[in-house]
Design brief:
101 residues, 4-stranded mixed beta sheet, Thioredoxin family protein, globular, two-stranded antiparallel sheet, Glutaredoxin, alpha+beta, 19% strand
């Protein structure tokens, strides 16, 4: 399983997701998106985005763009990062092994 954290420097929330992934014990690669061309090529709906084997864990209909991403939490609130429990569940559904919970 290849876990990737895609991010754009104009959005300040990617370090929080990196910390969530580290806390779950998931090895991951970081990929900085620096141009609209990168965003289009990587199908990047905004920062931060977590993918497993190229599949977005939280599918979005947003077009590729250099923008901050908004997550809708399980209780309907909006957040710049996914809920850690929802992230854990999505990683497990994708077949990832977590070394920490």
């Amino acid at each position: 399983m290849a876990v990737e954290l895609l991010w754009w420097a104009g959005c300040p929330s990617h370090p929080a997701v990196a910390e969530q992934l580290r806390g779950l014990g998931v090895p991951f690669a970081e990929l900085e998106i620096v141009s609209e061309e990168d965003a289009a090529r990587e199908r990047f709906p905004g920062s931060p985005t977590v993918r497993v084997d190229g599949v977005d864990l939280f599918p979005s209909d947003e077009p590729p763009s250099l923008t901050c991403r908004i997550y809708v939490l399980g209780d309907g609130r909006f957040s710049p990062v996914p809920d850690v429990d929802e992230l854990r569940a999505a990683l497990l559904r994708a077949g990832c092994e977590l070394t920490s919970t």
